[in-house]
Amino acid sequence: MLTIGIDAGTSKWAISVLEEYKEKGKTKTKFKFETTIPTKEVKSNVNEVINLIENFNADCITLPSGYGLPLKHISELNDGDLFKISLKNKDEKESIGIRKFLSEAKKRKFNAYIIPSVKHLPTIENFKKVNVVDLGTSDKLCSAIYALSLSKNFKVEKFILAEIGYGFNAFLKICDGKICDGIGGTIASSGFLAHGKIDKEIINNRKVEKFSGGVLSVIKQKVTPEEFFKNYKKSENGVIAYNYFIDGLIKDISALSDSKISKIYLCGKISGFVEGEIKGGMERKFGRIFVTKNIEKTGKLNWSSASRGGAILANGINGGKFKNLTDRMEIKDAKGDIFDYIFV
């Protein structure tokens, strides 16, 4: 069995192809192929990615799904669904090109699925969904799946997953192998590029761009993450930007923590630069030991935890080795709408 997961990121798209096979009577899996493509290239030529996927003739695919839907086959996708996934109408400019990609993918008649975001899951108590759209987008759900797949006994896992990406941050709480809470990118602390939660007074009095207000806006220059974390003490507002960023991460992880949480899993492009700061900050705040583990190696990866998690989810949907894991997370029981429980 071949399954594919796709992560549509701010700076790059990642694709992972998972193979399930038999060896000496045992069912095994391995990632057969993985690659990344700059997001700007996908937007300019979406068929490059679609042709690549088609060549594998995969048994099941999970598609980049943004704000998500309850599990839905690509053949059933309509224009209303595309709006809920992207929060963009077809004539509006997109930042990462999901609408166009899904429209083209539907024409190829893949056995492919739109997947939920965290808000759709029945494992999240409904009061946590009030006046919130983003508790973690569909790619964050996939990152959690990948993190759980690394465990020998996912049913008892308790940890915080902190995805610290180039654009936004997001944080998920895992309780006994299920997602039980989340803080999505637009209500989380500042990302490296984009602001997170922001006072309404600011929005009312000035035009606020989606990808502004993060670290790069504070230092008023465009540098790589490597350059910033190496030289932040030398740049204008560098110390302010650094402390603003780290303080936000600690506050969000703390908000999801409880006395039973002692593990923090990290992923995302920026995660390798802040692992020590997160561990030290949490231990100083709570006065106890936290185990931190980066599930993505630093450096230039040709995969992401979300693309791998998407391939694992597709395997589970198709009845493969990971069915027990994805069933445990109650993904097939996802329901509702991202605009449910909105009272403003």
Average pLDDT score: 94
The CATH architecture name of the largest domain reads 2-Layer Sandwich
- Order of strands, main sheet, comes to 3-2-1-4-6-5
CATH class of the largest domain: Alpha Beta
SSE pattern:
EEEHHEEHHEHEEEHHHHEHEHH
How far apart are the first and last residues' alpha carbons, in Å?
46 Å
In what range is the share of β-strand residues?
Answer: 15-25%
How many H/I helical runs?
12
Number of domains: 2
Number of strands: 11
The CATH topology of the largest domain comes to Nucleotidyltransferase, domain 5
Shape annotation: globular
Give the fraction of residues assigned to helices. Answer: 25-40%
Work out the radius of gyration.
19 Å
Give the structural class.
alpha/beta
Main β-sheet description: 6 strands, mixed
Short description:
The chain is built from 12 helices and 11 strands. The chain is α/β, with parallel strands linked by helices and 344 residues long. The strands form 2 sheets. It has a 6-stranded mixed sheet. Strands 9-8-7-10-11 form a 5-stranded mixed sheet, sandwiched between helices.
Please describe what this structure looks like.
This protein has 344 residues and is of the alpha/beta class. It has 2 domains: 166 residues, Nucleotidyltransferase, domain 5 (2-Layer Sandwich); 144 residues, ATPase, nucleotide binding domain (Nucleotidyltransferase, domain 5, 2-Layer Sandwich). It contains 12 helices and 11 strands. β7 and β8 form a beta hairpin.
